[in-house]
Amino acid sequence: MKVLAIDTSNEVLGIALLEEGKVIGEYITNLKKNHSIRVMPAIQQLLHECDTVPSDLGKIVVAKGPGSYTGVRIGVTIAKSMAWSLQIPLVGVSSLALMALVGRYFDGYLSPLFDARRGQLYTGLYRYQNEKLETVKNDTNILAVDWAESLKEYKKKILFIGNDTSIHKATLQEILGEQAVFAKITENNPRPSELALLGMDLPGEDIHSFVPNYIRLVEAEAKWLEARKNDNVRN
């Protein structure tokens, strides 16, 4: 079965084509460019180069967030549309879990992260044991200071992974000291082939009810809900 993986959840644009036991093709860029006009040409080019047509695909795997609201929405929308039109299973995988796989050989805990602005980050805590990625602390949106404080109880070193680690590195190091380890720049781009691998054996989800995992509300939506709440209180 051929699996197509799509990741547009952050600045990295990643497309991969995987068959059981083999990565057929992979496309990755880390650029501040509009994913909405680049992702379909990237998919088409990769399939063409790999002598694959859409009808050859058996499953679509998409990075479902958290991350950029627009980026997550683009990837999920395209994945849903392709899966529905081809009548094949759709699987969503945490964008943070995808990042965590970089540290599969690290002897300690894994904390992938994306910047969420205002001193906050999207992150979770994982570890790789017995050839399986395990969730230790669920994906969350939290202040970097609070996240670092919560990790003090873990006795092993923690590998922080992601292109946004530099934004929060000083805070994490100040609180965790030598417990904090940082991935090399060549390890900070999520690999779409890993995304395909994570989702290959997972059951398909209901396409119509499938939604991104933003973790927190878009700021405009949060303000709208707060305004509605205040109106109800006054009434």
Outline of the structure:
The chain has 235 residues and is α/β, with parallel strands linked by helices. It is built from seven helices and ten strands.
Care to describe what's here?
By secondary structure, the chain is of the alpha/beta class. It has 2 domains: 2-93 and 191-223, Nucleotidyltransferase, domain 5; 96-187, Nucleotidyltransferase, domain 5. Helices cover 34% and strands 31% of the residues. It is globular.
What layout of secondary structure does this protein have?
Blueprint: E1 2-7, E2 12-19, E3 22-30, H1 39-49, E4 57-63, H2 69-86, E5 90-93, H3 95-100, E6 109-117, E7 120-129, E8 132-143, H4 144-150, E9 158-161, H5 165-176, E10 180-182, H6 192-200, H7 219-234
Parallel strand pairs: 1-4, 4-5, 6-9, 9-10
Antiparallel strand pairs: 1-2, 2-3, 6-7, 7-8
Helix pairs in contact: 4-5
The spatial strand order of the largest sheet comes to 3-2-1-4-5
| N-to-C series of helices and strands | EEEHEHEHEEEHEHEHH
Question: How much helix, percentage-wise, in residues?
Answer: 25-40%
Which descriptor suits the 3D outline? globular
**Radius of gyration of CA atoms, rounded to a whole number:** 19 Å
Query: What's the CATH class of the largest domain, please?
Result: Alpha Beta
The CATH topology assignment of the largest domain is Nucleotidyltransferase, domain 5
Average pLDDT number:
92
The helix count comes to 7
Main β sheet profile: 5 strands, mixed
* Number of domain modules: 2
Query: From the 3D coordinates, which CATH architecture of the largest domain would you assign?
Result: 2-Layer Sandwich
Percent of sequence in beta strands: 25-35%
Distance between the termini: 58 Å
How many distinct beta strands? 10
